[in-house]
């Protein structure tokens, strides 16, 4: 059982790394994990609780991005944010041209050790989803 958990974690970390690399190549930024499974920018008819980049931008503040062309130590106090889409051209391209999802977690971390797929998630819950740790205790709804 322990080996299966190890293999699951190893596989999921590889998927996350591949998804981040794809985003980095397309947009020049590495994004927070919570963005990797986001749908494109909402066009108007999509419900508020859908996991999209607009939802993430509005509910996760600040949502920092890592510029792949700038050494990480130089970004410590000057990191771009998803909220900068109107003022920074590269972030605008990422936000309005998002081609995700790049991965599909299908699980949410709801805080306090509670890992569930909520029946009726609100938009903040959906925007804050993370992959499930294979060693975490699963609490079912």
The quaternary structure here is single chain
- H/E element string? HEHEHEEH
Q: For the largest beta sheet, what order do the strands appear in spatially? A: 1-2
Shape: globular
Question: Strand content of the residues, in percent?
Answer: 5-15%
DSSP summary: helix tally: 4
Mean pLDDT: 81
**End-to-end distance, in Å?**
24 Å
Structure class: mainly alpha
Nearest-angstrom radius of gyration?
16 Å
**Secondary structure tally: strands:** 4
Secondary-structure map:
Elements: H1 2-27, E1 29-30, H2 53-59, E2 66-67, H3 89-96, E3 108-109, E4 115-116, H4 123-127
Antiparallel strand pairs: 1-2, 3-4
How is this structure best described in words?
Helices cover 33% and strands 6% of the residues. The protein has four helices and four strands. The chain has helices at residues 2-27, 53-59, 89-96, 123-127; strands at residues 29-30, 66-67, 108-109, 115-116. The strands form two sheets. It has a two-stranded antiparallel ribbon. The protein has a two-stranded antiparallel sheet with strand order 3-4. The longest helix has 26 residues, at 2-27. 28% of the residues are buried.
